[in-house]
């Protein structure tokens, strides 16, 4: 019962975010003009996620480009991530142990990735993380996040393996 409530809450939150983006588009003629292109971009971007396991390959300071992959405040971003077509995701450490799972989405414009983590035992919400998508192609996924030291970092992923459909 709790899992369905959390999933429903996540879908409501994502729906609200979509409505907010739509309201912004209506108040901005340029955005309204480009709305169809953004929807298409978002669908294409989402297709880049699906069917792959993404491995963290590098973490750099967003300003200086210095490699911070081994810094302790960035270790939580290192792992393997899988985004499924049904909106579920799973993140594992590099040894294959679960780190988090729940629901994922891209904003309608494809510029933000949202994770809504759910406790697999209780169905309780654990956290929501929204990050800026810097690059998303079939071969690279990079997002920007502020780490626990307050540094903006770029977290780069590359496909680890392609999953069978």
TrEMBL record:
Top-rank lineage group of the source organism: Bacteria
Keywords carried by this UniProt record: Signal
Signal sequence segment: 1-25
One Pfam family matching this protein: DUF4822
InterPro entries reported for this sequence: DUF4822
Domain DUF4822: 52-162
Protein name: Uncharacterized protein DUF4822
């Amino acid at each position: 019962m709790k899992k369905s409530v959390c999933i429903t809450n996540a879908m409501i939150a994502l729906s609200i975010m979509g409505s907010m983006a739509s309201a912004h588009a209506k108040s901005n003629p340029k955005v309204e003009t480009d709305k169809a292109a953004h929807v298409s971009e978002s669908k294409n971007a989402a297709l880049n996620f699906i069917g792959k396991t993404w491995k963290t390959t590098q973490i750099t300071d967003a300003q200086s480009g210095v490699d911070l992959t081994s810094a302790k405040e960035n270790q939580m971003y290192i792992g393997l991530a899988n985004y499924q077509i049904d909106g579920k995701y799973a993140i594992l450490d590099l040894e294959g142990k679960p780190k988090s799972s729940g629901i994922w989405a891209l904003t309608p414009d494809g510029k933000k990735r949202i994770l809504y983590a759910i406790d697999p035992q209780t169905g309780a919400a654990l956290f929501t993380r929204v990050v800026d998508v810097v690059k998303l192609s079939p071969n690279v996924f990079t997002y920007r996040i502020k780490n626990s030291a307050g540094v903006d970092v770029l977290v780069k992923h590359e496909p680890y393996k392609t999953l069978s459909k």
